[in-house]
Design brief:
It is an enzyme of class 5 (isomerase). With 465 residues, the protein is α/β, with parallel strands linked by helices. Helix content is 46%, strand content 13%.
Length: 465
Amino acid sequence: MGVSRDNAARREHALDAEQAVLGSFLIDPGVQQQLFARVRPEDFLSPANRKIYTTARALFRAGEPVDGVTVRDKLGQDYTGPLMELMEITPTSANWEVYAAIMRDQAAHQRLRDLAEQVLEQPNLESCRPYVADMGQVLSAGPETDSWTMRQMADDFFIGQDPDAPAPKYITYGLDVLDNGSYTELGDVVIIGGYPSDGKTALALSMAYHMAAEYKVGFFSLETDKRKIRDRLMAHIGQISLGDIKRRRLIDPDWVALAAKGPEMAKRDLTVVQAAGMTAPEIQSVAQAYGFQVILIDYIQLVTPETDRRAPRSEQVAEVSRSFHTFAQRTGTLVVELAQLTRPDKGTWRPPTMQDLKESGQLEQDADMIVLLYRPDPEDKTLDQNDNRSLKIGKNKEGRRGTWLLSFDGERQTFALLGADGKPRRRPSDRKRRKQDEGQPGQVDFWADGGEFKDTPWGQEASAK
């Protein structure tokens, strides 16, 4: 009984807010432009109020005046009384944004209640999934338009550039070339592309573990069993042999190394989710349920599409890509997508490009940064196919692009940037990293509209490709 009364009170509160919003644009043409851009028809619980709103918005978009008379002419004489009442009970339009927020919240709450009732009617867990996915969409939905005037932009810019203001915080990856050469933020989309078995999962896991020191991270595995993910992580964290882990041949120094990392592991907020068969909305719903700030998807072409299964594969992958791009921006979640690359013709080798992202050019379009990981040219006898990888930043909206050489220790699932002597470079101190970022030798400093460069061993001149 108490719950029913609460629901009735909430609905009455929402209807009062709806009337206040309608009255606001009827009495004050000055609020109409913003109001019609930000309030959605689905925010109205009352069909009658929704009809008044959609009629008025159609008039506004047609360039016609919107007031009690013009709206009544469209709706008919039966609406004369209700429209007059709306204008009489609304003393001011000053608080329309508050009323709109109340409407939006109550409409979303009602939609969740309706979906929950549908979930309760389902015969099994599988049939519940579409409704749970819809719940995630409702929870992540925001206002229709988020605008910023030039004056607001300028004010915010000058405040942010104040020397006494806190320094901006960008997300790091645990690899110098990415940490110093990119400005990744929550809400971005990053792609790590690679051929099968070239190490993109190992690279992504090392990034996930690094990010989990400061963020709540979810690793969605659509291909690899969670126990294999666990073993790879332990090899990386403890710097112990993956082969010894798989054969259960750990010795005392290995256990000591893992034990020493125990306090660190306890503080890393990383969750592995077995996600085989999940759709994009289902992954997004889980991400929101867990409160993940960063999600990594291994790999994007394995996400089950919601479109017609008979649709071209490129359309299916494009739909998945657009869904995660929208999700990242709407929720402020960093989305890191692993992606397969199309292999070159058998017997040939060439460095991959962004056009090799398998099955959809939409992936390239939606990404803020694209990293390509691949083995070196087999004809180059100075490099080892097993122990070396090239890391190419092919797209970077706000940072450097180029190609760097890495060492890869497969047994310990660890990557490191190679120095001029061909040995893995130690991570420099913050002071040294700052100097490098200001143009020290070996640092390629240019923006995303520049040409592509290869950063040759550190200390040598970088040459154009």
